[in-house]
Amino acid sequence: MSLARWHDLPYLGDGRGGLVAVEGLSDVPFEIRRVYYIFDTERGVSRGFHAHKELKQLMVCVSGRCEISLDDGKVKENVTLDSPKRGIIVESMMWREMHNFSENCVLLVMASDPYDESDYIRDYREFLEATNV
To answer: Which amino acids are annotated catalytic?
Structure first.
C-alpha cells in the first residue's frame, strides 16, 4: 500500500499556457485554511522533519522538483513531485521530510488549518511512540 495519495489537479490550460485552479472541499478533500510555499532552498538542504497531529496538506511542486519522504511509523516511502498538475495529500500523523530541491523549485502547500505549533510533532521518537500505540 502506498503512503502517497496522489492527487490530480484540475488543469484548465490551453494554447495560451497552463492554468490550475484549486478550491477547497471541491478539488481538495478539505477546507484550505492556510497556503504557503517553499522556495530558494539551497542545494543539499532538507526541510520538514515533523508530523502533524491533525493537519492535512496538499503538496504540489509548481516549479522544478523535489523528493518527499513519508513515514507512517511502520512504512516509509519516497516520492518525487515534479508537476504543477499533480500533488500528494499528506494525512495527519505522517512524518514528512523534503529533500533534493532542484534549482528554482517552488513547493506549494495547502493546509487544512492555520499554523498551530501545538499540532506539530518534531521529535521522531515521540512520533513513533504516538503511531505505535
So the answer is: 50
